[in-house]
Amino acid sequence: MGLDITVMIADWSWLGGVPPRERLSRLREAWYADETGLWDHDAQVPEGDWAWPRGRHSATFAVYEFRRTLGSFKPHFWAGERWESVRDHADPLVRTPMDILLLGLVREGLDDTSEHAAPGFFGADPTAARGVLLAHPPDGVRELAARWDRARHRLGGLRGAFDEHAAAPGGWVGDFDEFAGLLTDWGHVLSEGARRGWGIVGLSE
């Protein structure tokens, strides 16, 4: 089985108000609770929208359902790979914000490092962040949202370069519309998190 990802935004007064080492367990316990209704087999999955829990945590976190990913991390990984193929051919005005945006979300750096999880978000113990693929407090979310806002107006200008250098018909995120659509979904997540002043967490279970 491949790697999965669930992306959530969380009220920082609720999640950030406990010691870092307790944050992941607090989030998981709330997410897994039967009362949320998120685990009902008959529940409709609102792709491209938010799933809000029922019960006492109805205003503390929400899960975003990405379009056409089926919960898999593969499209996110391949979006980073497609960007690697196209970035040298991109206008610098879109290259810089896109580099920072994707490094903060899904892309590995040149030395296989990334900034997907803010230092100290879940404490110093690596075992306290098991299954965490990305994590940013509100200030990090605002920064990434600002980068997306700078890039999104010029995203359409990448189509030609993508078609020439990154297209992979039949592959994951193999055409420009899939690439732009996935980035737009991330933009929705970041914009909503920034608007609320919330943090963001991506988990693989």
What does this structure look like?
This protein is α+β, with helices and mostly antiparallel strands. It has 7 helices and 5 strands; from the N terminus they run βααββααβαααβ. The chain has helices at 12-15, 20-32, 74-86, 92-105, 138-152, 159-165, 176-196, and strands at 6-10, 49-51, 61-65, 132-136, 199-203. A 5-stranded antiparallel sheet has the order 2-3-1-5-4. α4 runs antiparallel to α5 and α5 (138-152) crosses α7 (176-196). The longest helix has 21 residues, at 176-196.
What is the CA-atom radius of gyration, in angstroms? 17 Å
Describe the global form: globular
Q: What's the total helix number?
A: 7
**Largest sheet, spatial ordering of strands:** 2-3-1-5-4
Largest sheet: 5 strands, antiparallel
Overall structural class, as computed from helix and strand content, comes to alpha+beta
| SSE order | EHHEEHHEHHHE
State the distance separating the first and last CA atoms. Answer: 12 Å
Total strand segments = 5
Helix content: 40-55%
What average pLDDT do the residues reach?
A: 91
* Low confidence ranges: 109-114
How much of the polypeptide forms β-strand, as a percent range?
A: 5-15%
